[in-house]
Amino acid sequence: MYPALKTHHKEAIENLVREYRNDQRFHALIIGGSVAKQCARDDSDVDFMIIATEEEFNMRKSKGDLFINRTDLCNYPGGFVDGKIINLHYLNQVAEKGNEPSRAAFDGAFIAYSRIKDLGQILNRIPVYPEKERNRRMKSFYCMAFIQNWLMGEAERHGTLYTRSRAASQLSLYAGRLILAHNRILFPYHKWFVHYLEKCGDKPSRFIENMNRLLKEPTSKNAGVLFQNIRDFRDWGISDHDAYMWFMTKVEWSWMNGTTSLEDL
Which of 232, 144, 146, 130 lies closest to 181 in space, CA to CA? Predict the structure, then answer.
C-alpha cells in the first residue's frame, strides 16, 4: 500500500513495478527521495533503490553500471525515474553502521515490491539516529561552530571574501547539525538540510531565519547572532577553552593519530 502520492508519481511507480517485478535479476524495489518523504514537487523525479541478486550486482559493479535512469516510465513533463542498484548486503551494512546521510536516504522509504523475507524489518532499522555517537557529535558540532564564528571575524578583519563565504556556510552547517543531533534527526546531506531543520521541534527561536541572513550577508555581526542563538539555547557543557582545545587536537592535529578531521570529511 503506497502512501499519499501525486497521481503521476504513483503511475510512474506502478510502471516501475510492472517493468521489474518479474525480472529475476532483481529481488525488490524500494521507493525513496522526495516522493517517499512526502515533499515532492509536481516535476520531481521518482528515486528508487532496486535490490539485485549477488550475481547481477557484482556483474554491474565490475562494469561501473549501478544506475537506472529512464524517462519512458513517466507520463509527465520532465519526469524520470532515477535508481541505484544495490544488494542485500548493502542494506544490512547501512542498518549496522551506515553514516547519517545513508540512513536518512531511507527516511520514509517504502517497498514497492519484494521477494525478500523480512525486508521491512531491515528497512526499519536504517533511518534511526545513532544514539551511541550523539554526545560526541554534538560536542564536535558545537566546537566547529565556535571556531567558524571566530574565523568569520578574522576573515572580515583581513577582507578575504573566500574565507567569509566558507565560514558562513560552515557555521550554518555545524550549527544546523548541532540542532539536528539535539533533536535526534539524521543529517540528510545538503539538499534536504533546511527541510530537516524545519522538522526539528526543539530549536532556537528564529534559528533558520538567522542562518539564512548569515548566508546572504556573511558578516561577523550575522555570524555572531547565529552562534549566540545556539550558545544561549541551552548549556552544552563546553567552555571556550574546551572548544579551542578540541579544534587543535581533533582538527589541526588529526593527522598525528591517523584520523580524518571533521572539517575534511
Answer: 130
* pLDDT of amino acid 263: 59
**Contact by Cβ (8 Å): 178, 230:** yes
Helices (H) and strands (E) counted in the chain, each on its own, are: 12, 5
Note the pLDDT of residue 2.
75
Q: Please provide the DSSP assignment of 91-126 as one string.
A: HHHHHHH--HHHHHTTTT-EEEEE-STTHHHHHHTS
Residue 255 is predicted with a pLDDT of 84
Cell representation of residue 168? 558562513
Paired strand residues for 49: 30, 84
- Residue 92 CA to residue 145 CA, distance in Å, equals 33
Q: How many CB atoms lie under 10 A from the CB of residue 66? A: 14
State how far the Cα of 218 lies from the Cα of 235, in Å rounded to an integer: 26
Going by their DSSP bridges, the two strands 26-32 and 67-70 should be labelled as unpaired
> What secondary structure does DSSP assign to 5-52, as a single string?
--HHHHHHHHHHHHHHTT-TTEEEEEEEHHHHTT---TT--EEEEEEE
The answer to whether 233 and 204 are in contact (CB under 8 A) is yes
**Burial label, 78 (beta-carbon count in 10 A; 0-12, 13-18, 19+):** exposed
Give the CB-side neighbour count of residue 146, counting CA atoms within 13 A: 20
- Which cell numbers in the block locate residue 30? 524500494
- The pTM for the full model equals 0.92
Stronger pLDDT, 26 or 252, i.e. the higher one = 26
Q: How far is CA 33 from CA 199, 226, 238, 263, in A?
A: 16, 30, 36, 27
